[in-house]
Amino acid sequence: MADTLKERAPGARTPRTGAAPDTRRRAQRRKRRLAVLFVLPALLLLGALVVYPVVFSVGRSLFDASGEQFVGAANYTEIFQDPATLKAIRNSTIWVVVAPVLLTGLGLMLAVLTEKVRWATAFKLVLFLPMAVSFLAAGIIFRLAYEQDPDRGVINAAVVAAHDTFEDPAAYPTARARENQGLAGTDGGPYTTTETVRPGGSVTLGFVGVAPDAVPSQARPAAVPGPGADGIGGVAYLDFAPGGGGTQGKVDPAEKGLPGMTVEALRDGEVAARATTAADGSFRFEGLSDGEYTVRLPAANFAAPYQGVNWLGPALVTPAIIGAYLWVWTGFAMVLIGAGLAAIPRDALEAARMDGASEGQIFRKITVPLLAPVLTVVFVTLVINVMKVFDLVYIIAPGPVQEEANVLATRMWLVSFGGGNDQGLGSALSVLLLLLVVPAMIFNVRRFRRSRS
């Protein structure tokens, strides 16, 4: 009875079961509104910088260059009919196939090797430093490095130095025969005497076009040697006296010989004897049979100096730019793969070593399979990046070969703003580039989500 009265007392309240759920729903709505309020600036920025340009580009791609006449899919059809655009698609394909594969392989190799060196951190820092350089600066650096003139391009300077180590350069690349002095030939050689000579005779071979500082230091005043009864003598000399004076076609005391020249005696078009000029420019053919001979100086004496490789020519410009891209991004691939390598359980590697596996077997059968997820992410990220490459191609490729180096991004810019003034076709190219990039981006996002779950 007392309990019943207590339950019915005036101050007692019966709990309302519906109040708590309503309160929770109102709290959730407030949280959603608050979340939308915080996210709204980012959504507006995303819409203005990403969504609107994409929608606008899709719409603009359906109109002509003026933007007034609707042409439908005509711009997309032109993409696959324009030779320059097809070349850009081909180059983009080369980039996608070559650059990510090389970068992933280099990153893997360097990540494994840096684990075994003492100064691994410093080594990684040096390789990663190019990532701090803008593509504009990297493009200027490699544009200069790829210059064909060895005096300006450091790469060709090294190539020329290596070439000249194994092959002697021409002795007198600028020399040319004195006109009307008995030598026939064109600049750059070969030069042949216009008159024949018999054993016991001699010839004088006068040249001009050699700067005084280009004459070898061992050169002596020119002198004509005695030919001998069964030989032919002669001299190759600089037919120019410092300060002027002297007689053209004759050896004067102040004129220097040209040492180191190869000279040949020809009979019936065949080489009968060969000699090299001495310090005073003299030479002698001995042991010749009786007959008429002509004297020839081969073109090798006058060949232009080796100038290295034309890195920025039509044939090599794309590989050269890919090389610059590798320089910038190798550190990125190495650091990411190195982080994955550090997460590999060491007990698996030690167990393999205890079982007698070689380092090569451990690398192929344990390290690479365990790193497969990281390698995939690095590879796909690089694929996305090379599809959009623009700066290096535009800066490094010279104007005359720009079309040979173009990729989709540079072609899109040139068509739209670089002189083409056809923003309809440019928008179509941008949509095509977006369609090519999106699948790789979706694949990467899914990989990240699976790795987090």
From TrEMBL:
Family to which this protein belongs: Belongs to the binding-protein-dependent transport system permease family.
Membrane-spanning residues: 34-55, 93-113, 125-146, 324-345, 366-384, 424-445
PROSITE patterns associated with the record: ABC_TM1 (PS50928)
Bias (Basic and acidic residues) ranges: 1-10
ABC transmembrane type-1 domain: residues covered: 89-444
Entry superkingdom: Bacteria
Key word Transmembrane present: yes
Pfam families: BPD_transp_1, CarboxypepD_reg
Protein's UniProt name: ABC transporter permease subunit
Compartments it resides in: Cell membrane
Topology in membrane: Multi-pass membrane protein
Keyword Transmembrane helix: yes
Chief subcellular location: membrane
Key words, A-Z: Cell membrane, Membrane, Transmembrane, Transmembrane helix, Transport
Region described as Disordered: spans on this chain: 1-27
